[in-house]
Design brief:
Layout (H helix, E strand, L loop, with lengths): L6 H14 L2 H5 L2 H10 L2 E3 L4 E4 L2 H9 L8 H7 L7 H4 L12 H10 L4 H21 L10 E2 H17 L6 H11 L9 H27 L5 H6 L10 H32 L1 H9 L4 H11 L6 E4 L5 E2 L2 E2 L5 E4 L1 H4 L35 H18 L4 E2 L4 E2 L8 E3 L1 E3 L3
Parallel strand pairs: 2-7
Antiparallel strand pairs: 1-2, 3-11, 4-7, 5-6, 8-11, 9-10
């Protein structure tokens, strides 16, 4: 099989791909994406997978049913003991790891919670939660010290998704630990330590959410859990394990992308101060700002798929059951579709949809939550603290799939 124009190009591409799995590549992946796209845009890796870095190729794979998710049947073949891990029985068995018709049925259930009335109320709740969390950090307004913005972003992201699903306020802070712990599964080449972290988180979340589901059955409220456990006209109710999986999916998919969107966005505005000034002058650019953050520094950098029996890319027929990695972080900086892709520009024409939350029937269920928080938070942050500035070097999260931070010190300047 021909891998690229030359064997040397393929070897160099393989070296870059290995580097992308090391801290140096995780900290600064984008120049390496450009090189990988130039050398081998459809790269058959030494690990037996196909790595895609062009926008068109990534979008095709994300939209095409010929590239399904890694479902139970396939997992049984390469990891027959996967059910021994509580994290895989919960988050790892949720809707994002299902294919039609199961995925279609589950997606219909979760889509039903986004009614027009609830969406309108949710936006008001988000605005109130953003104001509340900014009030909480007001004592840290610049007095010569600094404040870790990551703490605010993490607490806000959890407050939003927890209030949305219906978890009581008394549990919001506690939920942060296990919800973030579950993201240990969101990595490439998950290690034994990752499984242990995620399993511990699942073992904490499972009994709590099980009891919360039982409470809502006894005393329904106006929240997502009550909607999911309530009677349906079509009679197609979720099974108990599916309810648990759905709630854990919403927690994980709601927290991490939102947290990354807020920290990555603030980092981009610090690096491109003229864009921050333009945003302060015209808060009407909020939607454009959020979309440009998602393009420029994508929260979830890769999306995995499996080749089905009729999978093709650019006319090339592919063997079934091969792993395919769509590097959406690279797709969003493809110069074919995004002029000057390494420049953060909130005035950029939105002629192409960003690939940040996947696409097609497997598009991320947390994208609406993340976008809504970003649209509410950024104008409020800069409205209060137009002089917000770095207070030290932020610390990047070392994860091949999630692009974010673990610390983000700032000065809260008015």
């Amino acid at each position: 099989m021909t891998y690229s124009s030359t064997d040397n190009a393929h070897r160099e591409a393989a070296r870059i791909l290995r580097e992308l799995g090391e801290p140096v590549g995780i900290l600064d992946p984008y120049p390496r994406y450009h090189e990988l796209r130039r050398l081998s845009p459809m790269h058959f890796s030494e690990y037996g997978s196909i790595v895609l870095t062009r926008y068109d190729d990534c979008l095709q794979v994300l939209r095409d049913p010929a590239f399904p998710a890694d479902d139970f049947d396939l997992r049984d073949k390469y990891m027959p003991n996967w059910r021994e891990h509580s994290a895989l029985r919960t988050f790892g068995s949720s809707m994002i790891f299902r294919n039609p018709p199961d995925h279609t049925r589950l997606r219909r259930q979760v889509s039903g919670v986004f009614s027009p009335a609830r969406v309108k109320l949710f936006r008001l709740q988000v605005d109130a939660l953003v104001d509340e969390h900014l009030n909480d950090i007001e004592p840290y307004r610049s007095d010569g010290g600094g404040y870790d913005f990551h703490k605010l972003a993490r607490a806000l992201a959890m407050a939003v998704i927890a209030s949305f699903i219906g978890a009581p306020r008394s549990k919001w802070r506690w939920l942060i630990g296990p919800a973030i712990g579950m993201t240990a599964l969101i990595n490439l080449n998950t290690t034994l330590a990752d499984f242990e972290t995620a399993d511990r988180a699942a073992n904490e979340l499972t009994p709590y959410l099980t009891e919360l589901i039982a409470e809502r059955r006894r005393e329904p409220q106006d929240d997502v859990i009550s909607t999911l456990v309530g009677p349906r006209e079509d009679g197609d109710a979720l099974a108990e394990d599916e309810l648990l999986q759905m709630l854990i999916l919403l927690l994980v998919a709601g927290v991490q992308p939102t947290l990354s969107l807020l920290t990555n966005g603030l980092d981009a505005l610090f690096r491109f101060p003229e864009q921050a000034r333009a945003f302060i002058d015209d808060p009407g650019l909020t939607d454009d700002l959020v979309e440009e953050v998602l393009r420029f520094d994508t929260p979830i950098q890769t999306v995995g798929r499996i080749t089905g029996p009729n999978a093709t890319i650019n006319g090339l027929a592919l063997p079934a059951e091969m792993e395919v990695t769509a590097v959406v972080g690279a797709a969003n900086r493809d110069p074919v579709h995004f002029a000057e892709p390494d420049v953060f520009d909130i005035h950029r024409p939105r002629t192409r949809r960003v690939a940040s939350f996947g696409n097609g029937f497997h598009a991320c269920v947390g994208q609406y939550l993340a976008r809504t928080v970003g649209q509410s938070a950024f104008p409020r942050i800069y409205g209060r603290y137009p002089g917000i500035a770095p207070a030290g070097e932020p610390v990047r999260l070392i994860n091949r799939k999630i692009r974010g931070y673990t610390e983000f010190p700032v000065h809260l300047k008015g």
